[in-house]
Amino acid sequence: MSTVSARLDSPEGKNPPQPVPRLSLRENLVGLAEMRRDQLAFLVRSVRTHGDIFHMRLGGLPTVMVNHPDYLQHVLVDNHQNYDKDNFLYRATRTVLREGLIANKGGEPWRRHRRIMQPSFSRSSVADFTTNISDLTGDLLRQWEEPAGRGAVVEVTTEIANLALRIVLRALFGVDADDRGRRFERDFLEVNAIAGDFFRFPFPPLSWYSPSRNRLRQLIREMDGFIAYLIDARLARESEKPDLFTLLLNAMDEETGTGLTHEQLANEILAMIIAGYETSSNSISWIFYQLAAYPDIQRRVHDEVDSVLDGRVPTLDDLPRLTYTRMVIDETLRLFTPAWQTMRHAVDDDVIGGYRIPRGTDVYLNLFTFHRHPDFWPDPARFDPERFTPEEIARRPRHVYQPFGSGPRHCLGKHFALTELHIITAMLAQAFHITRPEGQAPVGFAPLITLHPKGGIHLRLHRR
Ligand code: HEM
């Protein structure tokens, strides 16, 4: 256990809270340059050198980084009332997502919108989505038969992003994405890159007029145009059964008797689409990449889907028996956690693990470094699905693994996402054996607002 986390043992109240240890001016200056070159390397090294809680300048702005499960538990769960999203990371995200659920500052407006949307993500609603997921996945796998037959290399990341977008649009809003969907994906990828750059070096402000800021404004306008088109398309026809769109449209505040304004409706739809397709599509790309990298693991997944499904399309009832496939997914979400960073803002003075957190502090939580904490994950960089056997899970403290966050603002789409990842991985394994192209260099990380595979994942698909 590191010395910093050992401070948790000292009963608070007996020892007065200490100031959070600070990086030196020199370390911060070196860090500023390194952040721009390789943000992940800088963060991994900082955690190794400074332990589980320290004060640093992230992209030049003062932040306290916490990297211990007890500290994350404190901020996200036990004392969540004291931490909102009125911070640097989410202010930048709100430029794009406005007041939609994911970037909403918090408080009553967030609570009300979360309450409205919750029913669309219950287990029974997700069960209704599974046929959409398997139908759309089947379409993509059939398209891949042709390049597979030619032995061609396929860039899977873009195609998977399109699949994930179609799934979320059809499941939640009952609409199909055409070419406009592809344009929306390209726009958002560019937005994600501009926002990721801004997070590493927040100058000039996003509201300024410069080529990249003007481009950002144009991309946001285009994305808003796509949402307006979806709303019109959906209003133009009745849906057979209530979906998220119907819920949002009919949402009524019990106290005021008013519904969502048109702008609020558009913001929620945009936020839900981005939250729903971006992280899932990155996860699926990384899962495919890992299966191709580890032929023995891929063979075990093939054996499992063959014996459980016997050639059938997977249903929700099959998923609990696809246990090894799920372990591969869980381990991929540990090492390639797509929603890899988040931030909170301390509303009032607080103490974390014996350290003083003055009100107004931005607290940075990085799931990339957190899921590699050597005190909880032996040989943390090794990809090993065996970490997720029931025995291993029971052996670890509960909060050391949280790709979907925790506390009241945990991922609303967690069951949706896990069902989607499980079905798509199983169906891919039924159809194809996948390999990496010969001589391909390892794919690096592009740490945007979400964690992307740099340059995309390229694979060879072989019909089984
Ligand atoms: C593998 C896929 C996914 C991962 C790893 C993931 C991860 C996360 C994480 C870590 C958070 C919490 C962020 C924070 O505390 O600051 C979050 C929030 C959220 N996610 Fe996901 N997510 C995934 C897929 C989805 C899907 C498919 C949907 C919807 C269809 C979704 C909707 C949301 C929403 C609406 C929030 C904001 C909740 C709130 O603030 O109340 N996510 N997600």
Automatic annotation (TrEMBL):
Keywords noted in UniProt: Heme, Iron, Metal-binding, Monooxygenase, Oxidoreductase
MF GO annotations: heme binding; iron ion binding; monooxygenase activity; oxidoreductase activity, acting on paired donors, with incorporation or reduction of molecular oxygen
Matching Pfam families: p450 (PF00067)
InterPro entries referenced in this protein's UniProt entry, alphabetically: Cyt_P450, Cyt_P450_CS, Cyt_P450_E_grp-I, Cyt_P450_sf, Cytochrome_P450_Monoox
Gene3D superfamilies (alphabetical): Cytochrome P450
EC number: 1.14.13.133
Top EC class, one word: oxidoreductase
Similarity annotation: Belongs to the cytochrome P450 family.
PANTHER family: BIFUNCTIONAL ALBAFLAVENONE MONOOXYGENASE_TERPENE SYNTHASE (PTHR24291:SF50), CYTOCHROME P450 FAMILY 4 (PTHR24291)
Protein name: Cytochrome P450
Organism annotation: Streptomyces platensis
